[in-house]
Amino acid sequence: MNKEELTEILSDNSNNNRLYKEADRVRRENVGDKVHLRGLIEFSNICKRQCKYCGLRSPNKDVERYRILKDDIINTAANAVNLGYRTIVLQSGEDDYYDTDKITEIIREIKKFDVALTLSIGEKTYDEFKEFKKAGADRYLLRIETTDENLYKEMHPHASYENRKRCLYDLKSLGFETGTGCLVGLPNQTIESLADDILFFKEIDADMIGIGPFIPHEQTPLKDASKGDFWLALKVMALTRINLPNINIPATTAMETLNPQGRIIALQSGANVVMPNVTSTEYRAKYEIYPGKICINDQPEKCRGCIEGKIRAIGRTISKNKGFRNKPNL
Ligand code: SAH
After folding, report:
1. For 180, phi and psi rounded to 5 degrees?
2. How far is the CA of 3 from the centre of ligand 1 (A)?
3. What global pTM score does this model have?
4. Does residue 283 have its Cβ closer than 6 Å to ligand 1?
5. What is residue 114's predicted lDDT score, i.e. its pLDDT?
């Protein structure tokens, strides 16, 4: 679809159900009925950045900051592997304590478990990305957040849109399965820019796309902004599936925060991945990028069983492989 078509569909709500169904069909035909689970470890909520929407932004003094150290991260990963996860995702704020040596050591240890490893630790240099790849990391998640450059500037003080894009192209060129995505419902975000976001995903040939509604956080400059619309976020996700048929698309946690059935609805509207939290309960509430995060009091065992039940209830099953984009049997 071109920009005009995308904008028209995004602006017209009379055929939404047909669109969600079509995305579900495209998902089934291209990536099948299996759902890939990724075990998410939120290993540090310390961040040097000031993203206006994010509760972990450095000026927020009301967060109790934590770091999970190497051995604990590895134990958490081992526990997730025992629960059947075939991918481990390491996510954090931009915390310079974890330098290249520390991250590569963690990567090498976790890769011994015969799992795919995804990093989601923010913007780095080409050489750092290269070291992560050499150490065995398979995938990297870095949302572009918005392709509207003015809005990007407004939302990310002291950051550069060009650098974020550079990171994504570096990751692609280094052979990472590259994930990006956007927020839906940022203040002053236009429908046209959401159409551009989808075209950008296609332009860089993203392997994974995460779409989430914006949720205002009380301790950020956007505390009084309106929250994003669940159905619009779902629509951007459905259009992403239709335009990039064979990629991996998670049913995001932020969707479930706005709608108690959010992840299941997403799985029936184009998504084929879920990223349950496997972080120990003592840290979960402190990784508060937005309020109302689900499952903050649950142990990893509970989340694993809970999501499996929901997935089976809609007639889908859990994949037993690592869930690479273009290697369906790996
Ligand atoms: N530091 C890493 C990880 C960021 S957290 C990085 O820069 O990639 C993962 C995602 O949470 C972000 O990319 C952003 O899209 C989302 N997020 C942050 N604050 C949010 C909010 N208030 N509402 C919804 N999603 C949010």
Report:
1. -140, -160
2. 26
3. 0.98
4. no
5. 97
